[in-house]
Amino acid sequence: MRGGVVYHTNFSLSLARRRFFGTFQEELSRDGERQGLMHCFDSSGRMALGAVSYIYSGDAQPQLLIQAFHTFPETVRL
To answer: What local confidence, expressed as pLDDT, does residue 14 receive?
Structure first.
């Protein structure tokens, strides 16, 4: 397409057990310290961990890639 914008989106949901969830959040936090935009939410009380939202953008000419990861500790299986 000449001069236009093509938009693609993809969503996925992965359920994690408690022991893997903490590791995943740590990895997101480390990535967020180096690049992207990250916000750590306070714990709601069910688990010691609060949710994390991490957004990263990359430039791969002629494309712009935006990835977003969000964790939901309240849904973790015990």
So the answer is: 82
